[in-house]
Amino acid sequence: MVTIKNIAEMAKVSRTTVSRVLNNSGYVSEDVRKRVEKVIEETGYIPSHYAKSLRTKKTKIVGVILPTIQTETSSRIVTGIGKEISQHGYEILLANTNLNQEKEIEYLELLKERRVDGIILIATNTEPALVEKIKEMNIPLVMIGQEANGIMSVTFDDYHAARELTRTFIKKGHEDIAFIGVDETDRAVGYRRKKGFLDEMAAHEINVNEEWIQKAIFDIDSGYDTMEKILSKTGAISKRSAPTAVIAVTDRLAIGAINYMKKQGIRIPEDVAIAGFGASEITRYLDPPLTTVDYHNEKAGEEAARQLFNRMQAQTQEGTEKVVLNYRLVLRKSL
Amino acid sequence: MVTIKNIAEMAKVSRTTVSRVLNNSGYVSEDVRKRVEKVIEETGYIPSHYAKSLRTKKTKIVGVILPTIQTETSSRIVTGIGKEISQHGYEILLANTNLNQEKEIEYLELLKERRVDGIILIATNTEPALVEKIKEMNIPLVMIGQEANGIMSVTFDDYHAARELTRTFIKKGHEDIAFIGVDETDRAVGYRRKKGFLDEMAAHEINVNEEWIQKAIFDIDSGYDTMEKILSKTGAISKRSAPTAVIAVTDRLAIGAINYMKKQGIRIPEDVAIAGFGASEITRYLDPPLTTVDYHNEKAGEEAARQLFNRMQAQTQEGTEKVVLNYRLVLRKSL
DNA sequence: TTTTAATGTGGAATCGATTCCACATAGCTT
DNA sequence: AAGCTATGTGGAATCGATTCCACATTAAAA
Predict the structure, then answer these.
(1) CA–CA min distance A280, chain B (Å)
(2) What letters, b where the CB count within 10 A reaches 16 and e where it falls short, cover A49-86?
(3) What pLDDT does residue B232 have?
(4) CB contact under 8 A, A96 and B115
(5) Which of B59, B72, B259 sits opposite A50 (nearest CB)?
(6) Where is the HTH lacI-type domain (chains A, B) (predicted)?
(7) DSSP string, A299-311
(8) In Å, what is the CA distance from B276 to each residue of A63, A88, B223, B254, B284?
(9) A215: how many CB neighbours lie within 10 A of its CB?
(10) Taking CB atoms and an 8 Å limit, are A50 and B91 in contact across chains?
(11) Dist CA B111 CA A295 (whole Å)
């Protein structure tokens, strides 16, 4: 591999001068510049970025830790991050935990070893061990999707989205609303969306049937199973024996639920209305099209990258910006 | 940031010795090892990977160039690559072209600048300029999804998959089959899948209606529009005025086509049978579930990584392994 | 007891860039 | 003519690791 030294010798100048033409800095006469450029051209020389990093202490790499890339949310966020950082000559080093929570901490260390200039963490939890680790890392880091004390974050307004969505159901006359949630260790998806739902119901003084509030895991089949479970609970509390509406905390859960209901001959939205969260592409094309909440994931990625750059440039590491992105209700025929 | 020099001083040994305990190489007495480890522990020292790279000439990074990460195909492949390479202590540097073909070449240079040990290219085309560039790069590279002379590749057996799928339609009694393809500069998806279809039709001596062979772009709406176009061509050649079956080269195109047909009151599969390619998750849950071709994308990513490692270890850069992965027909109710 | 081998440690060069200085030359001001 | 300033170039240190080699010491073999 040809190095700056080779170029210097071939062009009969010093490495200093080659570096100058490379970086367009300092004084270089037109003659010399031409000569050096010619040699670079001929040899196809490409300077080593990490040798440069060693000197400049900047890798121009942002580490991205994510639970899986196989969801639209993640891939949109990554796209957003990529768009923003590539404008600054940065690249993404990918750290995919494949839903293995312990790996989050492992990858933090690994990214430190790689000396990334900053980290964006698409978070699924806010376990104390993780939060602790982040704080002692001393590398600019922005968390997406979850928030924690003393950590910069870009989050979605899950609480208000859930409230507004619930309100919309209520306005359409629904009172017997079932809820398919997920584990509350996921503060954003599990806890806040549920709290939004419950608070809005309470604000309208509507009793909720506890048996219709179920917990699923993050996949379509689980939505199917959970819907079956809900419909098996004949309404001991409610006057009706079945809900007239269902809110699922993700689109996939909603899709699973719809599938179960269709199989049972339940019509949507005539018999049961339903909505999800996430605005995944397919929701537009379902039959009926699914009402959902769009979180502008790509923007979230961009915004996180912007926040990260702010922090990276800041002399101080103090202060923790937290931005909460707004959402958009996408009302479709399923409601 | 604490360096190996600091550790050496604090532990009152040389950098050489610290390096030895770090890499578990050479002789180090138990006393000294303990002392050094203690200092490392106390300071939280993490060696700089790129300083190491400078010396060892190995970055332990694989660059992945892809057209978009927002398809299941890409994200599955990336997952597969990640699984395989992380076992060897490698990481992924992501280069997302966002469907901008020119950026493929740009990114090749950028990855060279980053001195990645190898590159995996999820390819959409085999333009001469690209192929040329790859060859002059002199970095181990494996292409996924497309193949070209002199370049290592992992491809899907698009041709035979298309033939077998077509055969299945024919066996079910279909002769008037429409085909929704894409541009043939995409050799794999555009050209081979179409050729497989045509050859199988020819093998059964079935005439194809040229007007029912249409070209779309890669999204759901395009599938919708193209289906509309096909159905607007009343059969001047065929004895029927409409096809009894449709093969779409991607699941998304199939979904779009289904949506159009449903809107027209066409029943699937009673009036028109349909199939796609890709086995995207949602196809299982569509109504009716969609017949499709599963290409084991994650395995493809793993295999590409394995091929890449073989090449990276090989002393020679000669020979170009090409592996063709097999496929699996997923027969569902839409056919 | 002398050789030889195994064990243990450090000095210094090296990887490929950047950057601080020192120094040289030329053209302008006073 | 002397002093400045702008321009142009290179030497050498530096970034943080690895690794070759030299050199001790100790233990085992002859």
Answers:
(1) 11
(2) bbbbbbeeeebbbbbbbbbbbbbbbbbbbbbbbbebbb
(3) 87
(4) no
(5) B59
(6) 2-56
(7) HHHHHHHHHHHHH
(8) 36, 40, 11, 5, 12
(9) 15
(10) no
(11) 32
In chain B the domains, ranked by start, together with CATH numbers, are 4-47 (1.10.260.40), 58-156+298-326 (3.40.50.2300), 158-294 (3.40.50.2300)
Å between CA of B302 and C1' of C6: 44
Measured distance CA(B291)–CA(B283) in Å, rounded: 8
- What does the alpha-carbon distance between residue B160 and residue B166 come to, in Å, rounded to a whole number? 10
- Is residue B27 within 8 angstroms of chain A, CB to CB? no
Contact list in A for residue B76 (CB cut-off 8 A) is 70
DSSP code for A312: H
- Residues in contact with A139: Cβ distance below 8 Å, sequence separation at least 6, in sequence order: A111, A112, A116, A117, A118, A119
Q: Pairing between strand A91-96 and A118-122?
A: unpaired
Q: Taking a C-beta distance cutoff of 8 angstroms, is the pair B216, B222 a contact?
A: yes
d(C-alpha A168, C-alpha A201), whole Å: 11
User: Rounded distance, CA B193 to CA B175, Å?
Assistant: 18
Contact of A118 with A139, CB cutoff 8 Å: yes
* Helices and strands per DSSP (H, E), number in chain B: 12, 12
The tens digit of pLDDT for each residue in A64-119 reads: 999 999 999 999 999 999 999 999 999 999 999 999 999 999 999 999 999 999 99
pLDDT on residue B249: 98
Mean pLDDT of chain B: 95
**Average pLDDT of span B220-236:** 86
Average of per-residue pLDDT across A221-244? 80
Q: Distance, angstroms, CA A16 to C1' D13? A: 13
**Which of B45, B69, B139 is the mutation pick for testing A, counting most A CBs within 10 A?**
B69
Q: What is the pLDDT of residue B317?
A: 65
Query: Which residues touch B27 (CB under 8 Å, ≥6 apart)?
Result: B20
Q: Any CB–CB contact under 8 A between B109 and chain A?
A: yes
**DSSP 3-state of B160:** helix
Q: What is the C-alpha to C-alpha distance for residues B281 and A42, in angstroms, rounded to an integer?
A: 50
Choose from A69, A261, A263 for mutation: most chain B CBs within 10 A: A69
Q: pLDDT tens digits for B153-199?
A: 999 999 999 999 999 999 999 999 999 999 999 999 999 999 999 99
